[in-house]
Design a protein that fits this description.
This protein is mainly alpha-helical. It is 66% helix and 0% strand. It has one domain. It has 3 helices and no strands.
């Protein structure tokens, strides 16, 4: 697979994980998807903030899944900076 195509695969997977986590936050409490819960509708949380919020409302996430998501975050960040 070409290097550029692989970068897009990684970015798409990271984005998909972010959307799944946001959907789970929405299921728990609609306000949790916003960066500032006191001012909803401005900016949604990113992947880095979504997972800790889920854990704070006691949504169970397996340790292996947490590790995989953290790896995806690092890979997505690395892929964005690679040229």
């Amino acid at each position: 697979m070409k290097r550029v195509a692989l970068k897009f695969v990684v970015l798409n997977i990271v984005h998909a994980v972010e959307l799944v986590l946001k959907q789970r936050l929405l299921k728990e409490q609609e306000l949790l998807i916003w960066q500032d819960v006191d001012r909803p509708g401005k900016l949604a949380v990113g992947l880095e903030r979504a997972m800790p919020r889920l854990l704070s409302v006691r949504v169970g996430i397996d340790a292996a899944d947490i590790h995989a998501i953290e790896t995806a975050i690092r890979s997505g960040t690395t892929s964005r900076t690679m040229r």
